Amino acid sequence: MSDILSSLAYLNGKPTAQGKLKLKPEHFQVYEDLGFDFTGEGEHLMVRIRKTGENTSFVANELAKACGVKSKDVSWAGLKDRHAVTEQWLSVHLPKGETPDFTEFLAQYPSIEIVATARHNKKLRPGDLVGNEFVVTMAEVTNVAEVVTRLENIAQTGVPNYFGSQRFGHDGNNVTEARRWGRENIRTRNQNKRSLYLSAARSWIFNAIVSARIEQGVFAQAVEGDLLQAGRDLLPVEQANIADMSEKIMAGEYLITAALAGDNALPTQAKALELEQPQLDAEPDLMALIRGNRMRHDRREIALKPQNLTWSVEDNDITLRFALDAGCFATAIVRELIEEIEVERSYE
User: Fold this and answer.
1) pLDDT score recorded for residue 347
2) CA nearest neighbour of 334 among 22, 2, 1
3) CATH of 1-33+133-159+305-348, one of 3.40.50.1110, 3.30.310.250, 3.40.525.10, 3.30.2350.20
């Protein structure tokens, strides 16, 4: 499989060390954090699932069958990787307060475990989580010392907050289809496909903007016309306050953002606009899709700094532990550490 993100710039140069990711399911573990407590009562049974080598949609459909409800009555806060061991909550609409017998369901699928259950007064919806905790093992690393040095740098400066290849589908098919839809002005009532292609379109352009900032040497410093995230506020950078703003960026108080393109004009000015606008202009078909669906402009932080990052080394295996906010990709961190060697997974 080709690397569709190969053209994107690396913050610390392309790694020379090689390694294998997801050689075993347990080498990529994800633990969902919703960030809120359940009410203890309500129409929805909350089921915390631990799954190995299964995707979220499949598990949700099978859980619906086990509970005697339709697939639409089971929902989740976020999709989790198939090639991994992941824990997440699913909500099942069971308004009578019953708890099904899961014995047969669990016997049928040894790759699925039920870790906990609870009751809540609302269903889970996509985005109802604050983040995820990860345990990631890079196996058979060819240059452990180089990777450890890079980890030390990442702990201080972070990595580009790229959207991972999973956002773009197999071999980038979601981007290919998004371009076709924009070019051919396709209209659809299929909300899933519409959402998928719009998300891929905006994510692709965002990645290009971040890459351009790295190439021009302004990834970690403010330029005139930037919009900086300060809590819930977006603050514009003017020529007179660049030095002050840059100090606050270094201190972690302010965060540089880049465009999630919409149908309205970019709000950046001056040098920042000169960085962003060419990336939109380079993708007329994606922008036609975005504008045709009246997407509103948004901003996303360009740097990703993993929380509580630690690592351990055992022979040529390096295991990372860290947490990320919702919508951020662990593979963006791995990309800055190793050149991934594609492997034939025995568990597929």
Assistant:
1) 46
2) 22
3) 3.30.2350.20
